[in-house]
Write a structure and sequence with these properties.
Blueprint (H helix, E strand, L loop, with lengths): L1 H33 L12 H6 L7 H16 L14 H10 L3 E3 L3 E2 L3 E5 L18 E4 L9 E10 L5 E8 L11 E7 L5 E5 L6 E3 L8 H12 L13 H13 L10 H32 L1 H10 L10 H9 L2 E4 L6 E3 L17 E3 L6 E6 L2 E7 L5 E6 L4 E4 L5 E6 L4 E6 L2 E9 L8 H4 L4 E4 L3 E7 L2 E10 L2 E5 L2 E2 L16 H5 L10 E3 L10 H8 L6 E5 L14 E4 L6 E3 L15 E4 L12 E2 L9 H18 L4
Helix pairs in contact: 1-3, 1-7, 5-7, 7-13, 8-13
């Protein structure tokens, strides 16, 4: 019964995939048609080559990938590296298709690997040659060097009066069409044209190759990776079918009630592919459901932040706008910086709450908004220790206005986990930080309060459990701006605080929320020569430097193009990176392997987390669902973004 249900689910997904493939093929072809007539320069320059990184190189592959990328942008799709490879050579495109069971040969055989068959019914490709479909890629070998030389897009297929199929394509840089400079143009091949080597198709797991002892190549890699994902193979996917692979295949066949031959035949590969398809769909659905659940859970908070209009959208590189905000006078409580001023629930003196972390604001460093005045009492609003917007009443005469320091200003962006330092209207530098964590058993209490503050007294060095924190400056009661701490693990007593300790744990968390509420700043100098030492040495003696802790509630996440390169460590890496040589990754794993941002939507990349050290963007489903929630919040509030 389970196998029947599995096959039914796969059939439903395949039917849905076919309809979707038609839409995506149409989108790609529409873009390709719009490029007909484009001509490279006499020197060989093409916009497609420039887009792919080699402006004067051969550009047939780049033309195809450019069209996919353009279709993604124009139609709001994510085909690049999901439905089509990001290819800068024909060979890499073919390998991409082979690994996914989507490269169909015209000979029905892949040299060195074996004969191909259709996974849907096990029929040999030799016995039923493939008829290409609109949106397929066609791969050509012109020069008989056993190397793919050219690629184009299949526009449609017709039959002539003799019944021969004719494949109509759109291609760039087809040298058969004439001398230099080459153009984007249509071309037609007979299906039996000997230069055609194969097709890249839209459907995942379309063809397979019978594999046994001694087989090598991409198909074996794909088999080993599939068996590994399902828990039957624990060695490296090296692409050689040996004893270990044979044993894994036999164990899989036994578990699925198949003939235990040890060969990956049609029945084995069909079952394996079906199971992997379900696994992939489930993983992608879980990732999306998780993002939607997390986003909806924050809807109320987003609405509150938007309605209160404390922050709004933010661009730290808009120096004029940021500096104007940093120079605006602030209203603070006219008491000592660590003193708590408790709020009343009305202009009557009744204390609002006895909660340890609610119902009060700290003294002269915390900016508040004045919402109302009544009988000399003031109703004020700010963020409390739980990073909640709170308001209440204070007695007459408790407020004063302060003009911020006109030389320096600071913005701490909780969304990017970066500190932006400004001097006299210019952005000096940005530093990696960690604000308060929003996970764990004390998540509510640890989140750094948002708002506007004034840097206050230098505190210096202090212990927090087994963490030694240096060069701290107070900005909000017990919240401090300090150097990323060192961990000391002495079993008996506390060590000399000046001893080195271990910085690696807290430094590896920079760029993400990890503190107990303070703001940890990087110890190492950045490319501009700044670090926390610089802040301590240059800012601690200055008065009224405004620091804006910019909340992320109510703000949209930055969108990233699907074709943007991302990088990961295929040897067990848990994160994806914006830098191929990210400093947070051990050198033994560098350079990292490239994928695209759009590929993160697809299994097996659905569990990768963004690396904050190199400013990797949030996951695509996180961005999409959160931005949709922000739109929903504005709509429910009857406001315009």
């Amino acid at each position: 019964m389970k196998r029947i249900a599995l096959l039914l689910l796969v059939l439903v997904m395949m039917l849905g995939a076919c309809a979707l493939a038609d839409q995506r093929a149409e989108a790609l072809i529409n873009i390709a048609v719009s490029e007909l007539g484009y001509t490279a320069t006499k020197g060989g320059y093409s916009k497609y080559g420039e887009w792919g990184g080699n402006a004067y190189g051969q550009w047939c592959s780049e033309f195809v990938s450019w069209c996919v990328s353009r279709a993604d942008e124009y139609y709001g799709m994510s085909m690049l590296d999901n439905d089509y490879p990001m290819q800068t050579s024909c060979e890499t495109g073919v390998e991409w298709y082979k690994k996914r069971g989507r490269y169909v040969t015209t000979s029905g055989e892949i040299a060195g690997e074996g004969e191909q068959f259709y996974l849907a019914d096990g029929v040999s490709v030799k016995d039923r040659p493939y008829i290409p479909q609109p949106g397929d890629l066609i791969y050509i070998e012109w020069y008989q060097y056993n190397r793919i030389d050219h690629v184009g897009i299949v526009e449609f297929v017709t039959q002539d009066t003799d019944g021969m199929y004719l494949v109509h394509t759109i291609e760039g840089n087809n040298h058969i069409l004439g001398p230099e400079p080459t153009v984007v143009a249509r071309y037609t091949y007979r299906l039996d044209d000997p230069s055609i080597r194969g097709y890249g198709v839209m459907q995942e797991g379309f063809v397979g190759t019978k594999l046994g002892m001694g087989a090598e190549g991409t198909a074996v890699v794909a088999l080993q990776e599939g068996l590994s994902e399902l828990g039957y193979y624990d060695s490296e996917a090296g692409g050689k079918f040996g004893k270990g692979t044979q044993t894994a295949v036999r164990n899989y066949q036994k578990a699925k009630g198949l003939s235990q031959t040890g060969e990956a035949d049609a029945a084995t590969l069909r079952t394996l592919n079906a199971e992997l398809t379900v696994l992939r769909v489930q993983a992608e659905a879980r990732a999306k459901a998780k993002a939607e659940k997390e986003a909806q859970a924050r809807l109320a908070t987003a609405k509150e932040a938007i309605a209160a209009a404390w922050f709004g959208e933010f661009d730290p590189y808009d120096e004029e706008a940021v500096w104007a905000r940093l120079m605006q006078p602030v209203t603070v409580l006219d008491v000592e910086q660590k003193e708590r001023v408790f709020l009343s629930d009305a202009p009557n003196g009744n204390r609002k709450t006895i909660d340890d972390h609610r119902g009060f604001f700290y003294g002269s460093t915390v900016a508040v908004k004045v919402l109302d005045e009544q009988d000399g009492w003031s109703r004020i609003q700010a963020y409390n220790d739980y990073d909640e917007l709170e308001d209440g009443w204070v007695r007459p005469g408790r407020l004063k206005t302060v003009t911020p320091n006109s030389e320096y200003g600071i913005v701490v962006d909780k969304m990017t986990q970066r500190l932006y330092l400004y001097k006299e209207g210019k952005l000096l530098t940005e530093l990696l930080i960690s604000t308060g964590t929003t996970s764990g058993h004390n998540e509510g209490y640890c989140e750094t309060a948002s708002g506007e503050f004034l840097l206050a007294s230098p505190v210096g060095n202090f212990w927090s459990g087994n963490l030694y924190c240096r060069k701290a400056i107070r900005f909000n009661g017990g919240d401090l701006l300090h150097m990323v701490p060192a961990v000391h693990r002495e079993e008996i007593g506390m060590p000399d605080p000046q001893s080195y300790g271990d910085y690696s744990v807290c430094e590896s968390a920079l760029g993400s929320r990890a503190s107990h509420g303070c703001i940890r700043v990087q110890r190492a100098e950045n490319a501009d020569g700044y670090n926390h030492d610089w802040l301590w040495n240059n800012l601690r003696g200055k008065k009224n430097i405004k620091i804006i802790v910019w909340d992320d509630d109510g703000r949209k996440l930055k969108e990233t193009a699907d074709n943007t390169p991302m990088y990961y460590n295929p040897d067990g890496g848990e994160k994806y990176h914006a830098d191929q040589r990210c400093s947070s990754v051990r050198s033994a794993y560098l350079p990292l392997t490239e994928i695209t941002y759009g590929a993160l939507r697809s299994y097996p990349f659905t569990n990768l987390r963004a690396c904050r050290s190199c400013s990797a963007p949030d996951r695509p489903e996180t961005v999409e669902t959160w931005n949709a929630v922000i739109d929903q919040a504005y709509q429910e509030l009857g406001m315009t973004p």
